[in-house]
Specification:
Elements (H helix, E strand, L loop, with lengths): L1 H32 L10 E2 L1 H9 L3 H10 E3 L5 E3 L1 H5 L1 H16 L9 H9 L5 H15 L4 H18 L4 H54 L3 H7 L1 H26 L1 H17 L3 H45 L1 H6 L3 H54 L4 H43 L14 H5 L7 E8 L9 E8 L4 E6 L5 H8 L7 E6 L2 E2 L5 H6 L1 E4 L8 E2 H5 L8 H10 L3 H5 L8 E2 L8 H13 L5 E5 L7 H16 L3 E5 L3 H4 L4 E6 L2 E7 H14 L4
Parallel strand pairs: 6-13, 6-14, 9-12, 12-13
Antiparallel strand pairs: 1-3, 2-3, 4-5, 4-7, 7-8, 10-11, 14-15
Length: 698
């Protein structure tokens, strides 16, 4: 609908733009050169001129001519309404007779008064008079139609002067009338252009908003594998810079590319009416413009294809620097990071400079073509003016129309330079939109969501001979892992770095799907339930607790926006966080900075724990929860875990902290992705101590 409306408005704008050069031509030809006299058939004629013109017309034309004028009381003849309706036909009809009548004294062997007297008395017939007219035309010489029209206008001016008309007033009246009409057309064109700009901008903004929304929904549905394959930085660039490029090009397509063919077609039609013999100049100019555009496109296109990748690189380096700023400062690596950023920025700058130089070549070349076309039109048109084929105003109009057509194709050329980069951006956006997550929900008929929802307070998590590898990797990160985390108990996972502890957590949360085996919740394969239903049973506290900007209440309500304050305070109490939140002036409405930087690490950890608990999940996952806790915070965490166990919750814990291991029920030891030991915590610890004693490893 928007495009259809824009096309209609562009037609209106084109009509006004194409009408103005014609009125400019009329101001020069009629308003200035002809003193405002538009027609050879004058508004009023003397009786002598009227009778002379009527005499010199063929029989049928004479009847039409006499019917077009009425005699006044002063003896003159005035044009009537019927004559005004037939003005174009009258102009062609009276041109030659009017010229003969006014220049009769300059025609050899032609006595107008004698011929008029003889015709009135019936002495000569119509055929004889027409024969005299042919002789008079031969005496005047063979003249083109344009020259005859100009002579007829000159005769009409002389007729007005004979009747006492003020030609200066006629000229000023015509100029004012046409000038006001041009101002009105310009105003209509301006309103149409403003409406087109508004609708085009609004439409492009809606498209961009829709793209960003679709990209966000798609990325949120990605598993970790898809996020890693695209990279977070590239996804950010695609959702911002690439979408903005597409939005900008859509605006230009709607405002310029749609307008250019309408303007070009209209200009060609107007040129054909003005002077078809000079149209070859426009055709040659358009061919040269397209040749220039194709050469520039061939040179610049490869650079456009790599520019977006270089933007990704700049964003990547910037993001790493901002995220790792404390580390950079601690190791005094500012100069190294500056060099990295300078290298990425310089590569992007050089590519942009190359493409911009190509575009800067385009405009001077186009202006050169336009100026050459103008000179060629004046040179060729001058000879036509000399022969009387066209008038000066027609030449001015032709130049204007030619510039309009060339500017139309020039706009298309400018857009064509920008299209390759926008095309690359659109392809990058489309790659994300067409990507399919490797973690998919089952169909509604096959989903076991209801069975999982109807569970008791606890939920048993079982790994059944699970093996897993990332992406296209040939080596498994986990191999033949088989254990059960029971309700009402704490299962701790320990192992060296890279042993697969965090991978087990990701498989429970179904951020990835297992390669072999299965992960079940209360006997239900996690692949047989929707991700929403599965994660509604989970409470997760990451190693680095992340809080979103807003308030404490908004952070706690992440999973259930309708939770009451009572539920939130209960969760804070279990997490041992109610005390410090109560001491805040605004309590639950206390502001949280981005990332929770206005709270200590321990406070963030406890708020994150409360966020994981307020929905009463069946399974609590704690990833190194003691990392940001002091002794007091650790005591609070132990108390919270004891409360959760009494409620029958299943707790899966990753830690190497002895106080936390002392309160666990079962212990899983991973080495190189393989399960080395699993069983009651006391027995596993005793076995490890015995092995350490044998190896003399204290």
């Amino acid at each position: 609908l928007a495009v259809a409306l824009i096309v209609c408005l562009l037609v209106v704008q084109a009509a006004t733009d194409l009408a103005l050069p014609n009125y400019t031509s009329q101001i020069v030809d009629v308003g200035i050169q002809q003193s405002g006299v538009e027609h050879a058939a004058t508004e009023e004629m003397t009786a002598k001129t009227h009778d002379a013109v009527a005499m010199l017309l063929p029989e049928n034309d004479e009847q039409v001519f006499r019917a077009a004028y009425d005699q006044t009381e002063q003896g003159t003849y005035k044009l009537n309404d019927q004559g005004r309706r037939e003005m174009d036909a009258l102009d062609k009809m009276v041109s030659v007779p009017l010229v003969i009548a006014h220049y009769a004294d300059k025609i050899p062997d032609f006595d107008l008064d004698q011929a008029l007297h003889a015709y009135r008395e019936g002495i000569v017939t119509k055929e004889q008079v027409l024969s005299l007219r042919e002789q008079a035309e031969e005496q005047m010489g063979d003249k083109g139609e344009a020259i005859v029209e100009q002579q007829a206008i000159a005769a009409a001016k002389a007729e007005y002067e004979n009747l006492g008309y003020n030609l200066s007033d006629m000229q000023m009246g015509y100029l004012v009338r046409v000038g006001l009409l041009m101002l009105g057309l310009a105003a209509v064109g301006m309103v149409a252009a403003v409406c087109v700009g508004f609708i085009a901008s609004r439409t492009a903004a809606k498209v961009a908003a829709s793209l960003r929304s679709r990209l966000f929904r798609q990325v949120v549905g990605f598993s970790d594998a898809e996020v890693q394959s695209f990279s977070a930085v590239s996804l950010i660039t695609r959702g911002t810079n690439d979408v903005q490029l597409v939005q900008m090009v859509i605006v230009m397509l709607l405002r310029m590319v749609l307008y250019a063919p309408i303007l070009a077609v209209g200009g060609i039609i107007m040129i054909s009416r003005t002077s078809l013999s000079m149209s070859w100049i426009i055709i040659a100019a358009v061919v040269v413009i397209f040749a220039v555009i194709m050469v520039l496109m061939r040179v610049a296109l490869p650079k456009f294809r790599i520019m977006q990748t270089l933007v990704d690189r700049v964003n990547l380096v910037s993001r790493e620097m901002l995220t790792g700023l404390p580390v950079i400062r601690a190791f005094d690596r500012q100069e190294h990071e500056e060099a990295r950023f300078d290298e990425a920025s310089t590569r992007l700058m050089k590519t942009q400079l190359f493409t911009n130089r190509v575009m800067t070549f385009m405009m001077p070349l186009m202006m050169l073509i336009m100026n050459v076309v103008s000179v060629l039109i004046v040179w060729v048109g001058g000879s036509y003016i000399d022969t009387g084929a066209i008038q000066t105003g027609d030449l001015i109009a032709f130049i204007t129309y030619s510039m309009v057509i060339i500017m139309g194709f020039l706009m298309i050329g400018m857009i064509s330079i920008m299209l390759p980069r926008a095309d690359v951006a659109a392809q990058r956006i489309n790659e994300v939109l067409e990507a399919r997550s490797t973690v998919c929900d089952p169909s509604a008929d096959e989903a076991c969501d209801q069975r999982l929802v109807e569970r008791t307070d606890g939920a048993a998590i079982a790994f059944n001979d699970v093996s897993f590898k990332y992406g296209d990797s040939k080596e498994c990160v986990l191999e033949h892992v088989d254990f059960v985390a029971e309700p009402g108990k704490t299962t701790a996972i320990i192992g060296s770095t890279g042993s697969g502890k965090s991978t087990i957590i990701k498989l429970i949360e179904r951020f990835y799907d297992v390669t072999c085996g299965s992960v079940t919740v209360d006997g239900i394969d996690v692949r047989d339930v929707s991700q929403h239903c599965l994660r509604a049973q989970l409470g997760y506290v990451p190693q680095e607790s992340f809080l979103f900007s807003g308030t404490i209440a908004e952070n706690l309500r992440m999973g259930r926006p309708d939770a009451t304050d009572e539920v939130l305070w209960r969760a804070l109490g279990i997490a041992q966080a109610a005390g410090f939140v109560e001491r805040l002036p605004l309590g639950l409405d206390a502001p949280v900075a981005q990332g929770g930087t206005n709270f200590s690490g321990g406070q963030r950890q406890r708020i994150a724990l409360a966020r994981a608990l307020y929905g009463s999940p069946a399974l609590i996952i704690l990833d190194e929860p003691n990392a940001a806790l002091d002794d007091a915070g650790l005591s609070a965490l132990l108390a919270a875990m004891d409360t959760l166990k009494k409620q029958g919750k299943t707790i899966v814990l990753i830690t190497h902290h002895k106080p936390l291991l002392s309160v666990t029920d079962k212990l899983l030891l991973l080495t190189g992705g393989r399960m080395q030991l699993f069983g009651p915590a006391e027995k596993v610890i005793e076995t490890l101590n015995n092995q350490a004693g044998k190896n003399n490893d204290h």
